[in-house]
Write a structure and sequence with these properties.
- The chain is mainly beta and 288 residues long.
- It has one helix and 18 strands.
- The strands form four sheets. Strands 3, 4, 8, 9, 12, 13 and 14 form a seven-stranded antiparallel β-sheet that branches. It has a four-stranded mixed β-sheet with strand order 7-1-15-18, with no helix packed on it.
- A hairpin with a 2-residue loop joins strand 10 and strand 11.
Length: 288
């Protein structure tokens, strides 16, 4: 009898906690969730959001992405919405430690493909219909193919494409890069077999596709990539489930350099300089 009573108490406790768990799920507030995707087959666009070929005398490759970071995210109701006048859902920390305002890399959120980059309660998102989304990309980490003295290598490159980034010492694997200051858009660091290299592309050379250039321009060096939803994203305020947004970024020949040896291989030791590290388009999708 005593044994049966114990069993009954255990079963009741399980039922109680199960109900409790179900209530938690039922009462959980729905979120806006953002993830990144990298697509080497997506259209390769220019700054105006139009298809673009590789410039004559240059070569390019589609890098293998490891991670990315964004500095800013905004939902825009229509094509005439000025930058900053939509619903801003994310703005990364900034700092004056380098003398001028810059992205604080030490506090940047870095995410791999498919990993949640942003999750905020939908109650923090203004209700309305949004045709466009804008994301100001700030950091990319990817693997590229390199030719050095006749041998092919794989190197890992950190590409800083935000308007300005404050860095202390950053790392790629076992390679250290002491900076302790601000770096302009286009600063890059590369590790090949543990050997560190770094450099700077020309300011303003980073491609930033903005199909709204005529009605909603972006400031120079902002790296605000703009993409249109196939059907507007509508936030009613009555959602009971998460709204999950995937930002598919075109990495189609997004790493570009000026050729010295015309062989389609990136050979920095031959003086082949990086001319572009921008993403080549944004296609956003959502699930509700």
């Amino acid at each position: 009898m005593k044994f049966k009573s114990i069993i009954l108490i255990v079963l009741l406790a399980i039922a109680f906690f199960s109900c409790d768990d179900n209530d938690d799920v039922k009462n959980a507030e729905p979120h806006l969730v953002m993830r990144f995707k990298f697509d080497a087959t997506q259209s390769r666009l220019n700054n105006l959001g139009q298809p673009a070929a590789i410039a004559e005398g240059n070569a390019a490759q589609s890098p293998s992405f490891n991670a990315i970071s964004s500095h800013y995210m905004e939902l825009a109701p229509n094509a005439s919405t000025a930058l900053g006048m939509g619903t801003v859902v994310y703005h990364a920390p900034e700092t004056m430690a380098g003398g001028e305002n810059a992205i604080d890399f030490s506090q940047s959120k870095i995410a791999e493909e498919g990993e949640i980059f942003l999750s905020i309660p939908l109650s923090q998102v203004a209700t309305g219909s949004y045709e466009w989304i804008r994301t100001s990309l700030s950091y990319q980490n990817y693997d590229i193919n390199i030719l050095h003295q006749g041998t092919d290598y794989t190197g890992t490159l950190a590409s800083f494409v935000g308007f300005k980034t404050y860095l202390t010492t950053h790392h790629i694997g076992n390679s250290s890069f002491p900076v302790n200051g601000n770096r302009e858009q286009g600063y890059w660091a590369l590790s090949v077999n543990g050997m560190p290299f770094s450099g700077q592309t020309a300011t303003g050379a980073t491609t930033v596709p903005n199909p709204l250039y005529a009605t909603s321009p972006i400031p120079p060096k902002s790296c605000v990539v703009t993409g249109k939803f196939a059907t507007p994203l509508v936030i009613t305020g009555n959602e009971t489930r998460d709204v999950e947004v995937t930002l598919s970024l075109s990495v189609n020949n997004s790493f570009e350099w000026k050729e010295v040896h015309v062989d389609g291989k990136y050979e920095p030791s031959a003086g082949e300089n990086v001319v572009d590290m921008g993403l080549r388009g944004l296609v956003p999708t959502y699930q509700k």
